[in-house]
Design brief:
It holds the Pfam family Orn_Arg_deC_N. The chain contains 16 helices and 19 strands. The chain has about 525 residues and is α/β, with parallel strands linked by helices. The chain has 2 domains: about 170 residues, Lyase, Ornithine Decarboxylase, Chain A, domain 1, CATH 2.40.37; about 230 residues, TIM Barrel (Alpha-Beta Barrel), CATH 3.20.20.10. Strands 1, 11, 12, 13, 14, 15, 16, 17, 18 and 19 form a 10-stranded mixed sheet that branches. Strand 4, helix 7 and strand 5 form a beta-alpha-beta unit.
Length: about 525
C-alpha cells in the first residue's frame, strides 16, 4: 500500500551470482593492464537502421502490474528465501567463535536493508527513450545515477551509450563492452593522463573549457600521426536560467561547467576554436539536472543548435559540427515523448538534420522509478509525550543510502509503504494509523528518511519500502558510520514458470499475480566486512 494504494503483486527467486575474482591487496591492475584488458573486448557494431525514424507521440511504457503492485509478492519471496527479515541468531549462537559470530552479524545485516529494481521498468525506460526520438539520437545513460554492473549491462544491451563523469565511470563503461564512441567522458577535471587514455581508447570527449582543448591538441600532436577514433567536442554554457534548485543549476553565469556564451566575443571564441582545431567536431550543453522545466531545457538546447549552425556557416558551409550532445536533466516525472515534442518545437533542426548524431545523457529519468529501498524496522519508540500519537521507528536505511533525502528533506520526498515481514500490507493486518518519524541507523540527529508519515502503527520487524529510489541512492552511498553496503535484487515479470517456486542453488522462485509471474534474483551481493575494513586501511 502506497498511502492507501496497494495492489497484489507477484513472486520470484533469488539466484546468487558468482562474483568475478578480485585482485588481492597489493595486486591492483596497472594502467597498462587495464588498457590491455579493455582492448580485448569485442565491440558491437553501431546500428541505426532498426531505430524508429519518426517522432513518437505515444506515452511511456505502462507496466501491468505496476512496480508498486509487485512489492508484496517481492517481499514474500525475499522473506521465504531468508533474504529479508528475521534474526539469524539461534540457540547456541553464544557459544560460537568470535569469527562465526561476526559472520552471523554480516549475514543478518544483509537481510535488514536492500535495494530492489524492477528490471522490466528499467528496460521500459530505455525503450521509451529510444521510441520517443529519431534514429540519429543515441541515449547515453548517466551512470552516476546507478553505476551498478547489471544496470550498465541492461543499458548497453538496449543500445544505450554511457555518460561518464570520471575515469572510474569511463573505465566501467569500457569494461562492460559499451561501444567506445558511445562512452561520453564528461569530467570537468580531466587530467592529462586521463585525456591520453581516452584518446587511445577512442572515447568521446567533451572538453570543459578552452584550456582543455589546448591540452587535447598537444596530446594529439604527441601521437605523431596516429589517428584517434575519439569524437571531440566543447561543452558550452548557454546561460538560460539558474533553475529552481541552485545546487543543480549548471547554466547560470557563474556555473563551473562549460565555456560561457555570455558575450558575442565568447561565441566568437568557439568559432575560432573550430578554425584552430580540425579535429573538433562536436558541441555539448547540459542545461540543468533538477528543478529544470522542459521549456528551460529546450531553450538551452535551441541555443546550442543555433551555435552549431553558426559554426557551419562561418567555416564555409560544410558540416563541421557533426555531433551534438544535448545532455540530460529530464525530471523523473516527465515522459520522454513529452520532452521530445517540446524539444522538436523549440529546436526543429535537431530532429530534421539527420547528418548530425545527437547524444542525450539521461540519468534520473532512466532509473529513478524502477528502484525501491526496502528496510526493516528494528525498534519503535512510543509515546514520546503524554497523549502524543507520534512514533519513532528506527530502520536500517538512512543517510547512508538515502543521503539527499536525509540532508535535504525539503527537496526530496518519496512515497512510503509499510508491510509485515511476510509482505502483507499493514493496513490489511493492523487497524488504525499514526504519524511516524522514520529514523535511520546513523549516529547523527538529522538521519531521518521522512518525518510525520501516516502509517498503520509500525512494530519491530515490519518492513518499510521507499519508492522511486532507483537513482542517486546506492550511487551516493556514504561511509559515515562505516555501515556495510546492502545487497541489490532485481525482479522481472515472467510469462511462464519453469519451476515450483522453491529457492535454492541455481534455482529461480516465481510468484504469480493473475496470469503474470515474476522472478527475483540477486544482482549485487552485500559488502563483506573485509572490503569495508580494507577501505579504511
Amino acid at each position: 500500500h502506497r498511502h492507501g494504494r496497494h495492489e497484489r503483486p507477484v513472486h520470484r527467486s533469488l539466484k546468487r551470482r558468482t562474483a568475478a575474482p578480485r585482485p588481492h591487496r597489493g595486486e591492483a591492475l596497472s594502467p597498462m593492464a587495464l588498457l590491455a584488458s579493455v582492448r580485448a573486448i569485442r565491440w558491437p557494431a553501431v546500428r541505426f537502421a532498426a531505430r524508429r525514424q519518426h517522432l513518437s507521440t505515444t506515452s511511456d511504457l505502462v507496466l501491468t502490474p505496476s512496480t508498486a503492485a509487485c512489492v508484496p509478492a517481492v517481499l514474500k519471496q525475499l522473506a521465504a528465501s531468508g533474504a529479508l527479515g528475521g534474526d539469524s541468531s539461534a540457540p547456541g549462537d553464544s557459544h560460537k567463535s568470535e569469527a562465526d559470530l561476526a559472520k552471523a552479524v554480516q549475514q543478518n545485516a544483509a537481510t535488514k536493508c536492500m535495494v530492489v529494481y524492477d528490471l522490466d521498468a528499467l528496460r521500459g525506460a530505455f525503450s521509451s527513450a529510444r521510441n520517443a526520438f529519431p534514429a540519429h539520437f543515441v541515449h547515453a545513460l548517466a551512470i552516476k545515477s546507478a553505476p551498478m554492473s547489471f544496470v550498465l549491462k541492461e543499458a548497453i544491451q538496449a543500445g544505450c551509450g554511457i555518460e561518464a563523469a570520471s575515469f572510474g565511470e569511463a573505465a566501467s563503461a569500457v569494461e562492460h563492452g559499451c561501444l567506445r564512441q558511445n562512452v561520453l567522458f564528461d569530467s570537468p577535471a580531466k587530467t592529462v593522463a586521463e585525456l591520453r587514455w581516452a584518446l587511445e581508447l577512442g572515447l568521446t570527449l567533451n572538453a570543459d573549457n578552452m584550456f582543455e582543448l589546448s591540452r587535447i591538441d598537444t596530446l594529439i600532436k604527441e601521437r605523431k600521426g596516429r589517428a584517434t577514433a575519439s569524437i571531440i567536442g566543447l561543452r558550452v554554457n548557454p546561460i538560460v536560467d539558474g533553475g529552481e534548485i541552485s545546487m543543480f543549476a549548471v547554466s547560470s553565469p557563474d556555473s563551473k561547467f562549460g565555456h560561457p556564451l555570455h558575450t558575442a566575443e565568447a561565441r566568437a571564441e568557439v568559432i575560432g576554436a573550430f578554425r584552430t582545431y580540425p579535429w573538433l567536431s562536436s558541441l555539448h550543453a547540459h542545461v540543468g539536472s533538477a528543478g529544470t522545466s522542459l521549456q528551460m531545457l529546450s531553450k538551452g538546447i535551441a541555443s546550442l543548435v543555433d551555435l552549431a549552425n553558426e559554426v557551419d556557416r562561418d567555416l564555409g558551409g560544410d558540416a563541421r559540427v557533426t555531433t551534438l550532445d544535448i545532455g540530460g536533466g529530464l525530471a523523473a516525472s516527465s515522459s520522454f515523448a513529452e520532452y521530445a515534442q517540446v524539444l522538436s518545437g523549440a529546436a526543429p533542426d535537431l530532429f530534421s538534420n539527420t547528418r548530425r548524431r545527437v547524444f542525450t545523457e539521461f540519468g534520473r529519468a532512466m532509473t529513478s522509478k524502477s528502484g525501491l529501498v526496502v528496510t526493516q524496522v528494528e525498534y519503535v519508540k512510543t509515546p514520546l509525550t503524554p497523549h502524543s500519537p507520534l512514533r519513532i521507528a528506527t530502520c536500517h536505511a538512512g543517510a547512508d543510502l538515502l543521503l539527499r533525502e536525509c540532508y535535504n528533506p525539503q527537496l526530496y520526498s518519496h512515497d512510503i509503504s509499510a508491510y509485515d515481514v511476510h509482505g502483507r500490507p499493514l493496513d490489511q493486518v493492523r487497524a488504525g494509523t499514526a504519524p511516524h518519524h522514520l529514523a535511520g541507523p546513523l549516529c547523527f540527529a538529522g538521519d531521518y528518511i521522512k518525518k510525520d508519515v501516516l502509517l498503520p502503527p509500525l512494530e519491530p520487524g515490519d518492513v518499510v519500502v521507499v519508492h522511486d529510489t532507483g537513482a542517486n541512492s546506492l550511487s551516493l552511498w556514504s561511509r559515515h558510520c562505516s555501515r556495510l553496503v546492502p545487497p541489490v535484487y532485481g525482479f522481472s515479470r515472467q510469462a511462464k514458470s519453469a519451476g515450483d517456486g522453491s529457492v535454492g542453488s541455481g534455482s529461480a522462485g516465481d510468484a504469480q499475480l493473475g496470469e503474470v509471474k515474476v522472478q527475483v534474483q540477486l544482482q549485487k551481493p552485500p559488502e563483506p566486512l573485509e572490503r569495508l575494513l580494507e577501505f579504511w586501511r
